[in-house]
Automatic annotation (TrEMBL):
SUPFAM superfamilies attached to this UniProt entry: MetI-like
Compartments in which it is found: Cell membrane
Transmembrane segment boundaries: 23-42, 54-76, 88-115, 135-165, 177-200, 206-227, 259-280, 330-352
Keyword Ribosomal protein recorded: no
Membrane-protein topology: Multi-pass membrane protein
UniProt main location, coarse: membrane
Alphabetical UniProt keywords: Cell membrane, Membrane, Phosphate transport, Transmembrane, Transmembrane helix, Transport
Role played: Part of the binding-protein-dependent transport system for phosphate; probably responsible for the translocation of the substrate across the membrane.
Annotated protein name in UniProt: Phosphate transport system permease protein PstA
Length: 362
């Protein structure tokens, strides 16, 4: 009996024998990045923070990590595991290389923009300001209002177009709409601005600049993005949900409102945020339509309005008597624009989470 028991329950063998612990790759990665950042900080000693080569530090750190993880794995594990670790490190390095332009831009904008990130920048306009000082409160209000107006115009049109294409559209009309939406996706932004400017020149008169013109120009750019994104989200809603609603006698329009849209609300909000992020930094169409001003204007239908992209462009191109102060304002405007996009993305995620259908288990 004891022999049978011994055969039935063999001695347990640990599967982690000869393997690095899970925290080891992360520790080695942190060590490699720490060494390279210290090295590049030493090379930049005495220089400005903006001159720190963060791209070189990250790239060199990933190369050092590949060498370290391969050597350590070959010693502690085996040659096969070392090759596997090396391939994983190569894939991670490729991902970091793809992110290097974004990291470089964010680092430069944050370092340069913090110089003028003060209460004055968010409470003053540029009216009667010639040299240092001044702020961009008028540009912040203009960006928010013009983008909000464009969203109010573009989202209902784009969403209803996508609903038509998915739920109702058939034949030549649907194919024509899809073709036109694809064409609109590739329209240069300045063409949208010229189109709105030409329309208002015929209706109101040449030379006019209004905030609503900027909203319309941005809406032209937003509509195809909303249509394509919302269409894909509506198509992945299972047909079983629609059929179950129809079986209960619910009409089609109510099925779309109560079943299809709530199921895909998270993806629709993501497509809307992509559209907003696509247009909130546009400069060329706003220069033609909304114009620029040094004073605060919160009326979309009365006079020109300043926006953050135009403010940054104008501050850099027209530096005046104090070039350093003007360039600092341009960088601060760019940083503010990035923060606004980040806040809008977080708000969209919150809205999608609140309105998403609740899954209840049995």
């Amino acid at each position: 009996m004891s022999a049978a028991t011994a055969v039935a329950s063999p001695q347990k063998v640990s599967l982690t024998t000869g393997r690095l612990p899970r925290w080891a790759p992360w520790a080695l990665l942190g060590f490699a990045l720490f060494v390279t950042f210290v090295l590049f900080a030493f090379l930049n000693m005495g220089g400005d923070v903006a001159d720190f080569n963060i791209v070189g530090a990250l790239f060199t750190g990933m190369l050092l990590y590949m060498v370290v993880i391969t050597v350590v794995s070959s010693i502690a594990e085996s040659r096969r595991h070392a090759v596997d670790r090396l391939m994983t490190a190569l894939v991670s390095t490729a991902f970091v290389i793809a992110l290097l332009p974004l990291v470089s831009v964010l680092f430069t904008v944050v370092v340069a923009g913090l110089q003028r990130f003060d209460p004055t920048f968010f409470s003053w306009t540029m009216r009667n300001v010639v040299g240092e000082g001044g702020g961009a409160v008028h540009a912040i209000w203009g960006t928010v209002l013009i983008t909000l107006g464009a969203t109010v115009i573009a989202v209902p049109i784009g969403l209803m177009t996508s609903i038509y294409l998915v739920e109702y559209g058939r034949g030549r009309i649907a194919r024509a709409i899809t073709f036109l939406v694809d064409v609109m996706t590739g329209i240069p932004s300045i063409v949208a601005g010229l189109f709105i400017y030409a329309v208002f020149s015929l209706v109101v008169g040449p030379g006019v600049s209004l905030g609503i013109m900027g909203s319309l120009a941005l809406a032209v750019l937003m509509i195809p993005v909303v249509v394509r994104g919302s269409e894909e989200m509506l198509r992945i809603v299972p047909n079983e949900l629609r059929e179950a609603s129809f079986a209960l006698g619910v009409p089609k329009w109510l099925t779309i409102v109560k079943v299809v849209l709530p199921t895909s609300i998270a993806g629709i909000m993501t497509s809307v945020m992509l559209a907003i992020s696509r247009v909130i930094g546009e400069t060329a169409p706003l220069l033609l339509t909304a114009g620029f001003t040094q004073s605060l204007n919160t009326n979309l239908f009365d006079g020109p309005m300043m926006t953050l992209p135009v403010f940054a462009y104008n501050s850099y191109m027209n530096q005046g008597t104090t070039p350093d102060a003007s360039v600092a304002r341009a960088w601060a405007a760019a940083l503010t624009l990035i923060l606004i996009v980040m806040v809008l993305n977080l708000l969209a995620r919150l809205i999608a989470k609140v309105f998403a259908p609740k899954m209840t288990g049995r």
